[in-house]
Design brief:
heterodimer, A: alpha+beta, Uridine Diphospho-n-acetylenolpyruvylglucosamine Reductase, domain 2, 5-stranded antiparallel β-sheet, 12 strands, B: alpha+beta, Ubiquitin-like (UB roll), 2 domains, 5 helices, 5 strands, globular
Chain lengths: ~325, ~170
């Protein structure tokens, strides 16, 4: 398998990498696990790769407010096994190890994981003509095609693909912030705003601009370490993308919910924060009625397609189970 | 472009197109064909090698990006007269049939055993906050080896081989 020809440049300093960005045909190379795969399929055809793997962005540091700052090049393996992450953000550790394979996690970076592209069959195979995400204006083959793995929430007439990452679902639940650096300075983008819904511009997955480099992700001080759960439901027990996943995090006041975060994966083009379901639970005990109310609120507005109606029920059951297991954790 | 790769302790000076993957550099430019090309898309694990002692898929890595790294392949594991203990364990437990996935399985197992000794978790680890070396139950071995597919289905022998190697402390 080959790829289109490109120029290769190794950046030694963050400023050099940023200086090389801005051209739409330039891509940063970090772990390469998604980018090179897409290049081999001619989905991505950059003319220049900027190898950023030697930039000093591999630290995980505790912040003065008790939060954590994670360098963009920390590998998925190193982040999942970091002692602070496992103690204070076990939800994130669980999400990370449920994604990909050990080899891929050894390669894949935090920044690259944030920018993973959808595994919609019609997007990843250039043999299909109609894909608005790959070729704006060409249509969406998935809407009338095989759409078992596709979105039930937040899709548009132009694109019904889902976001593939597990890590990002946990980051959305944990109120993470993405730090993006450009020639004009540093921008902090909350996870809830980082990924976009398709609307009329499905070709843009995120709010990151072409001249920006993700340098870090920050997490606020942990409040959910004792009661959290990442539940991933998929066709195989391992090494498979989620049909539905749920990141549930609870702060309990005896048997009542003081605060809660619920985010879903596999249902939308972004990690889907179930804000209504969170509101439903605050102040309540996690009895069957509360779990059912939260589960139903989590899929409010769901619009399934031909093959994926099962995801609505699956998502509701997964939300209830993840909350129950989080409270028992 | 010019690329120098350190493979199994030897330096190789190569002239490559930037598109050449680490896998193709090993097989087509250096002549080390022990590392196998299966899917060439990061899905099967046949191309697994150790880079700075970590297992990676060499099909999704550019050779140019690994200048300065220590690369170990299946050819670099055995001693002059003795096999690597994981190689012996695979033979002892029939951890293969056709053998095509085996170099990747063995490199992956060596990387995995190293990870397990170093206080790491997997998707089947029930308490991610627990400290210390991983307890390599069969479920842990299967999950931690899930990046390597075996089309012949020799998984029972592979798990047995890895289990024995883990007990020998390789």
């Amino acid at each position: 398998m080959t790829m289109r020809a490109f120029d290769y440049m190794r950046a030694e300093r963050v400023d050099d990498a940023i200086a090389a960005l801005g051209n739409p045909n330039t891509r940063c190379l970090a772990g390469g696990t998604n980018l090179l795969d897409l290049m081999k399929g001619y989905v991505e055809q950059p003319t220049r790769l900027v190898d950023i793997t030697h930039l000093p962005l591999r630290d995980i540091e505790t912040l003065p407010d008790g939060g954590l700052r994670i360098g963009a090049l920390v590998s998925n393996t190193d982040l999942a096994n970091d002692r602070n992450v496992r103690e204070r953000y076990p939800l994130l550790a669980q999400a990370l190890v449920s994604g990909a394979s050990p080899q891929l996690r050894n390669m894949a970076s935090v920044g690259g994981n944030l920018l993973q592209r959808t595994r919609c069959h019609y997007f990843t195979d250039v043999g299909f003509d109609a894909c608005n995400k790959r070729k704006p204006g060409s249509g969406c083959a998935a809407r009338e095609g095989s759409n078992r793995i596709h979105a039930i929430l937040g899709a548009s007439d132009q694109c019904i693909a889902v976001h593939p990452s597990d890590m990002c679902v946990a980051l959305a639940a944990l109120d993470a912030v993405v730090e993006a650096q450009s020639r004009s300075g540093m921008r902090r983008i909350p996870m809830r705003e980082f990924h976009r819904l398709p609307g009329t511009t499905p070709e843009r997955d995120t709010e990151l601009r072409g001249d920006e480099l993700i340098v870090a992700v920050t997490l606020p001080a942990s409040r959910f370490a004792d009661h959290s759960r990442y539940l991933k439901v998929r066709d195989r027990a391992s090494y498979e993308f989620a049909l539905v996943s749920v990141a549930a995090a609870l702060e309990m006041d005896r048997d009542r919910v003081r605060d809660v975060r619920i985010a879903l994966g596999g249902v939308a083009q972004k990690p889907w924060r179930a804000l209504r379901a969170e509101q439903v639970l605050v102040g309540r005990a996690l009895d069957d009625a509360a779990l059912a109310a939260a589960a139903s609120a989590a899929t409010e507005g769901a619009r399934p397609y031909r093959d994926n109606a099962f995801k609505v029920t699956l998502a509701q059951r997964a939300v209830a189970r993840a909350l129950r297991e989080a409270s028992a954790a | 472009m010019h690329v120098r790769l350190d493979v199994n302790g030897h330096d190789y000076d190569l002239t490559l197109d930037p598109r050449v993957t680490l896998l193709d550099a090993l097989r087509e430019y250096i002549g080390l064909t022990g590392t196998k090309k299966g899917c060439d898309r990061g899905q099967c694990g046949a191309c697994t090698v150790l880079v700075n002692d970590r297992r990676i898929n060499s099909c999704l890595a550019l050779a140019a990006a690994h200048e300065g790294d220590r690369i170990r392949t299946i050819e670099g594991l055995a001693g002059a007269t003795t096999l690597h203990p994981v190689q012996s364990a695979f033979i002892g437990h029939d951890g293969f049939q056709c053998g095509y996935c085996t170099p990747g399985q063995i490199c992956s197992a060596i990387g995995m055993l190293d990870e397990a000794r170093g206080d790491t978790i997997s998707a089947v680890t029930t308490d991610v906050r627990r400290r210390g070396p991983a307890e390599l139950t069969d479920a842990e071995i299967r999950e931690r080896m899930s990046g390597n597919l075996c089309r012949c289905g020799a998984y029972v022998g592979i798990v047995a081989a890895v289990r024995e190697a883990s007990k020998r402390g390789t």
